TrEMBL record, chain A:
A biological process term (GO) from this entry: cellular respiration
Name of the protein in question: Formate dehydrogenase iron-sulfur subunit
Principal localisation: membrane
Pfam families: Fer4_11 (PF13247), Fer4_4 (PF12800), Form-deh_trans (PF09163)
Cofactor annotation comment: Binds 4 [4Fe-4S] clusters per subunit.
Function, in words: The beta chain is an electron transfer unit containing 4 cysteine clusters involved in the formation of iron-sulfur centers.
Cofactor(s) recorded in Swiss-Prot or TrEMBL: [4Fe-4S] cluster
Residues holding [4Fe-4S] cluster 1: 41, 44, 47, 182
Stretches for region Disordered: 284-327
TrEMBL record, chain B:
Lineage: superkingdom: Bacteria
Localization of this protein: Cell envelope
Protein's organism: Halomonas korlensis
Entry's Gene Ontology BP terms: anaerobic respiration
Signal peptide positions (record): 1-24
GO MF entry, a single one: molybdenum ion binding
Protein name (Swiss-Prot/TrEMBL): Formate dehydrogenase major subunit
SUPFAM superfamilies: Formate dehydrogenase/DMSO reductase, domains 1-3
Residue ranges occupied by any 4Fe-4S Mo/W bis-MGD-type domain in the UniProt entry: 45-108
A Pfam family annotated for this UniProt entry: Molybdop_Fe4S4
Keyword Nucleotide-binding: no
Amino acid sequence: MRGDQINLQNIVARSASPAPSPQVRDGAVETVTKLIDVSRCIGCKACQVACSEWNDLRDDVGECVGVYDNPVDLTPNSWEVMRFNEYENEQGNLEWLIRKDNCMHCAEPGCLEACPAPGAIVQYANGIVDFNSEHCIGCGYCVAGCPFDIPRISKKDSKAYKCTLCSDRVFHGLEPACVKSCPTGSIMFGTREDMHELAETRTDYLKSRGYENAGVYDPEGVGGTNVIYVLQHADKPEIYSGLPKDPRISPMVEAWKGVTKPLMSAAIGLAALTGFFHYVAAGPKEVPPEEEEEMRAEEANEGLSRQDLNGQDRNGQGRPSDEEHRP
Amino acid sequence: MTLKITRRQFFKLGAAGMATSSMAMMGFAPEPAVASIRHFKLSGAKITRSNCTYCSVGCGVLLYSRGDEAINTIDNIYHVEGDPDHPVSRGSLCPKGSGLLDYVNSDSRLSHPQVREPGTDEWKQISWDEALDRIARHMKDDRDANFVTQNDAGSTVNHWLTTGFLAASASTNETAYLTQKIVRSLGMLVFDNQARV
């Protein structure tokens, strides 16, 4: 078995790069999934702290705006944020819906699709979508391409940042930092299969407790996600601080990457090819000797007059000569 | 050194450069696929088991430090996470426990005993020996002065109510047993732990 095939974090997709050649052997890599059970979350934010600690991020101390969300939104230094929502259900009772908002690690990532910088966004065989700031050019296309509005551009280094699903930890057989810290077992981590099984157990339980519409959030529009939610009200995900009901990659991204770019690439290739054949068939462009002479004479004249000008300048208080720099 | 190129050559070079760079941008340039892009920061770390001291739950934590304790190095803790083998927390931590690293490395953390003398408003650094001696002296004097053998009703009580003891929140059973024995054998009744403060 080749080394790169047993590498759990073999890169299967790379932004602005040709698709890798297909491999029969997959190195027994299983897709990993993070399950966020909203019904068990108490909003303690241990995951947020663990995330900052592991990734060496220290966000600025913010201002209280009267809600528990802290920080109020994702930032380049806060890769996940708990979104608190007060929801009044059909019975008129208050439900406190707390959703951990972070990268969903889509199977068909809009950010990777939109990214024009080769290698700035990669997708590993285990399903993690990771940003490589080394190659990031800070264009912000990933922000436009993300249906969940996750990536944030740093004002300090103009590079995009988001949750990595602790790809470094997962690579070494550990769970992401947020998962490990969670004191209520609201965040679980394992293979995709195991997490879906667990999610089903949880939705069954919630249904038995009266949440008829309990379900798993794993949107089809982006090919499924490797971060899935168990929701008490899966029929209306928008009440969880605007979780999109049917997220899709923006049609603009599809149009650019799916149509415009291949067409333009073909046009450039065709132009180059035509140029080559023209060169082979017709040869280089030739200038008749008399025209050449004429041009030389003109150039010589121009040169003389410019020298005169410089001469005048030197007599006055003008700028120093740029003669030496002229080709 | 000056580069001799004609105007025409300059345009040619520019056009060629632009063509090749746009070909690369359009995905015609082969790029090597590289594996994992992130460095694992715990490689080679020394792991030390410890307890979170924030509250009485006493979750187990693992302290990851750099350095091998050689004579010319000063080790430092650079990561803290839950201990999966700890029976209480099994690896999980609350937000305070998850942020222990900044608590460990905090500038305002006490690193030596301090005393504020009566009538002053500043803290003075003292040695451990001095601190322990002073505490022992104060305890002895206070106990000698205020130890009660019998209450008003004449029953034997043998207690000492003028001094209290505040113990650590996350002690092992053995430490808790010893602390209890020491405190009670002195006749002290006011006894609590830090977690309830």
